[in-house]
Amino acid sequence: MAQTAFETSLEVLLEQPKMYRVLLLNDDWTAMDFVVNILVEVFEKTTDEAMAIMLKVHNEGIGVCGIYTYDIAELKTQIVKEKAHKHGYPLRVKTEEMP
Fold it and tell me: What is the pTM of this model?
């Protein structure tokens, strides 16, 4: 029986962490090249991937930058907010738990 209790405890420890997506929201003032640079620098996207995400945000109002664990998603969200503020852009970004 001790072995069964150990296996059950081990299963709980190996549970997958919840995942969160970082979303960019469209605005009419943030430069498109700034958004592309953010996606390349912060989210490690290729230029082509960054362009595709930027256009999705521009055309549809929202786009996914990436999916991460909570701590990483929040860190990247904060970095984007700080960079946007530093450059005078009202770029909106948020972290959302995956369904």
Answer: 0.84
